[in-house]
Design a protein that fits this description.
Blueprint (H helix, E strand, L loop, with lengths): L8 H14 L6 E3 L11 E3 L5 H16 L3 E4 L13 E5 L18 H20 L2 E4 L2 H11 L6 E3 L6 H7 L1
Parallel strand pairs: 1-2, 3-4, 4-5, 5-6
């Protein structure tokens, strides 16, 4: 899921994965088969093309067929309707998707409305299902603990930061 444009969550994820790679970890991305050939990275294209169905069914099928040891779910959600036979790490940036519609009104974008409703239904289940959670601040960590009664030891804070190395090389 590292093929998204480089802003916000995708920037965080790419910095995170670069740190793992520099530590010698073997990292591969997984993307829906419908995106095959669209990006030139170390990505495996597999499964359904619809992103919501892909996340719920294709990812777990891929994990189980390929005996994946650890899978990072970088965008607040993951497969909640199937068993994951690996260590699962959920990157949970914040809980804004759980805010009531009266507090944060619906977007004008149908895609964003569907995404918010999807995250509201799958996010809480994935929070409880994940072996580990990474979040970006102590504030978010405390909200996750308070909202979902998650054991504090399951959550690690890795703050957002600027990738100075890339910025220096751009100039």
């Amino acid at each position: 899921q590292i093929i998204a444009p480089h802003r916000g969550m995708a920037t965080y994820l790419n910095s995170f994965l670069n740190a793992l790679k520099s530590n010698g970890e073997n990292i591969k991305g997984l993307a829906p088969a419908g995106l095959s050939g669209k990006y030139r990275r170390n990505i495996v294209y597999y499964g359904l093309s619809n992103i919501l169905l892909w996340e719920q069914f294709s990812i777990s099928k891929f994990i189980n067929r390929n005996k994946v040891n650890c899978f990072i779910f970088p965008y607040n959600t993951g497969p909640v309707f199937s068993t994951l036979n690996c260590t699962s790490v959920l990157i949970l940036h914040d809980l804004i998707f759980m805010e009531p519609f009266s507090k944060i009104p619906l977007s004008r974008s149908l895609k964003q409305i569907i995404g918010r409703i999807y995250r509201r239904s799958t996010g809480p289940r994935m929070i409880k299902k994940a072996n580990y959670i990474i979040t970006v601040s102590n504030y978010s960590k405390n909200r996750i603990i308070d909202s979902f009664k998650i054991d504090e030891s399951k959550i690690t804070v890795i703050p957002n930061c600027i990738d100075v190395y890339d910025k220096i090389n751009d100039h």
